[in-house]
Please model this.
Amino acid sequence: MTTAPSYDPPPASTAAGPGAEAARTPVRLFLTILELAALGFLGSGVAGLLGGAVGIGIGLSVFGVGLVVLVGLVYALFGIGWFEIARLNGLYGFDLPALRRRPRERPGFGGWLLSLWRQAYNGRMWRALANFAIACALGSLVLRLMTWFGWSAVTAFAPLFTGTDMDTGWGTRYPSAWAPLVGGAGAAAAVVGIIGIALLHRVISRGIVATPDRNLDLSEQVRTTTAQRAGAVRAADVERTRIERDLHDGVQPRLVSVGMTLGMAQQKIDTDPEAAKALIAEAHTSTKAAITELRQLARGIHASVLDDRGLDAALSALAGRSPVPVVLDVRLDGRCSRDAEAAVYFAIAESLTNAAKHSRASECRVVVRVRDGGTLWARVEDNGVGGAAVVPGGGLDGIGNRALAAGGTIRLDSPVGGPTSLEVSVPCAS
Amino acid sequence: MRILIVEDSVLLREGLVRLLEDAGHTVVAALPDATSLDETVDATDPELCILDVRLPPTFVDEGIRAALALRRRLPHLPLLVLSQYVEERYASDLIVAQGSAGPLGYLLKDRVADVSEFIESVQRIAAGSTVLDPEVVAQLLTRRNQDDRMRSLTERERTVLAMIAEGRSNQAIAGTLFLSEASVEKHITAIFQKLGLEPDESGNRRVLAAIAHLSSTGRGGAPAGPTQTGTSR
Model:
């Protein structure tokens, strides 16, 4: 553990770092007090409205109107929860994900009701609401302490304008000479109380809202994994279709024609040896073309040098074969995961193919780097005519799906008139 | 000529044997993998060794590794590596490892189909030349194109350089480019000067070593200092 930091890590992983906290504490404390006071002022009203809405909603639910009120209530609660999380993020820099509406899982009215029902069950929303209620309660306490502070301050200066004994407020009296002492102590107690509440609010908020939500993390993971899997499946599907087409349209007819040519040569070899010779030469040429086609098809499916020597080495053949001159600018130390390298290799291969087929470019430039945070990043630019777009099942779609399957993203920039640039970023250790 | 073959595909192995014996050579051994290569080489004393890159058990680069091991042990044994795909990195490994000791060939398997050219390549390698596939030469040159020394070459000099790297004679280059042999020689002198090489008879391998060397001194805006190929024999 030689690399362990010297300070204790913050209790919640989502909280801001200790350094930032220290710098902004006085301002934040002041803001907290202001916000609490505002909430204390508004809170009871909001609570009253919501309570009323619940009462009316349930009471009138038999008439249907109540249901509308209850639906409105769910939206109102969501709104308050959203506000609360936004408020805490702004105040404490918790960096919590904003409260999101449940995506509708089924179409139609039923789907909407279902998502509403699920929304009403959302644990995060209720935790935010609980925190909101507590903040309101703390806020009203803060308001009281502020009033107390005001009275204490007035009391402290009482000897200036009154000579009579003072009333403690609990039926006993004391001489006005003690008033500055009593007032000062009261004001100090109020200030300490207010600051204490503000600090308490932070602790409570962190405990209630900012604790990492395991369920949320897991469901987020599930979403990502599902998207990745879908990308992988689509990519494989597109790839299979393309291989089938390449074999069917390219190699197979070539071999059929070789067979025909050789058959004709066989017929003619006795009667017309010269023609037979020419046919055999034709078959020979055609066979070599088929071999080349097959080789390029096979290497497009899997470049074994990629596993063996890495991305940098594998790009040589792509650049060497490209009809458009390619400038390679690759700076990589070490290797990335197989998936990451394969996804980026595929993106570059496909982009170069596209550039050669459609862009009318006279030069391509390929830049590959490992960027901060361990992202394998590549950009392919050409100086062509642009206007490339993602078509489902097309080459660019394939690039996107492959990148998605490896947990990455692509960005295409191809205005009509050019130039085209495609960036792909994939986690190095996906 | 006594030739040893290491090729895992039966079809290709038998085809190669037939083709080479047809051309008047003797195939002293035809192995399916490289496990017993050392003993077989010692026992049969071939004049040329033909190796496939992808061999059992992993089918990745066994052939390259076997070739490198053979080169270390017998630096002057001519080697011809055949590959389904040609990769600049494998070629660089072989060229760098050999320095300028033994003759070397690195060709696409497809080239076997052009029988007479293939036989000619085999004979040139056995005679001491280095023959690289045009595809791998293209890759090598593409990867070195950002080097300042390479940029200083003219288009024509680049073409000549590529043909030298493929192992063609000055006469062949002159014939292909419709030049006189004298002007080919002039181009070669210019190339050697620009790449920082001393011109001598064995231009082919020295050029290859220089190209491989450019890669080891960094890609992208590589330093423009003098080459230290250290390949003079």
